[in-house]
Amino acid sequence: MELHKAPAAEVGMLIRKPVTEVYEAFIDPAITSKFWFTHGSARLDSGRQIEWEWRMYDFKSPVAVRELLKDEKILIGWGEPATTVEWTFKPMLDGTATFVAIRNFDFQGDAGQQVKAAVDSTDASRSCSRAPRPGWNKASHLD
Q: DSSP code of 135?
C-alpha cells in the first residue's frame, strides 16, 4: 500500500454550551473524567507531562501537553509511540454552542499500520462524542 497523504483520524461534535465551559471540560480532569477517561493525573497545562487512565480497561497513557490556546485549541502528544492530537473549539449559534473538532495524526509504522492506527483512533475519538458516561450532563452541565 502506498500513501499519498499521511492518515489522520478526525471527528467533530456540537456541544450546546459556550466555548469557555467546553474548553474547561477538556482541560480539567475532574470534568473530563465524567465523559471520557476515568482519571487524569492533573489539569492540562503547557509543557506539562500527565497521565490519563481508563481504569475499567486497566489502561494508562502518557500525555505531553504541547500547546494550549484558551478557548481555541489544545495540542498534545499521547501514547507510546506518541501521536499528535489537536482539539479546536469554535463558538457557534451566537455563542450558545461550541463545535469541537478532534484530529489525531503522526501515526508510526508502515502504510498499513498507519491506516489501521488512524481507523482505531477514529473509533476511540467517536466514543468520546457519542456516549457520555453517567453523570456527565449532571456534573458538568454540558450536553
A: T
Distance CA 96, CA 28 (A): 21
Read off the amino acid at residue 113.
Q
Round to whole Å and give the CA distance between 12 and 95. Answer: 17
The rounded distance, in Å, linking the Cα atoms of 22 and 72 is 10
- Residue count of the chain, please give it: 143
Order across the sheet with 73-78: list the strands: 9-15, 97-105, 83-92, 73-78, 59-69, 49-54, 39-40
Pairing of strands 59-69, 73-78: antiparallel
Q: What is the pLDDT of residues 115-131, one digit of tens each?
A: 776 676 655 554 554 44
Q: Quick one: DSSP state of residue 132?
A: P
Cβ atoms of 120 and 30 within 8 Å: the answer is no
What is the per-residue pLDDT for 128?
54
Q: What is the CA radius of gyration of the chain?
A: 15
d(CA 23, CA 100): 9
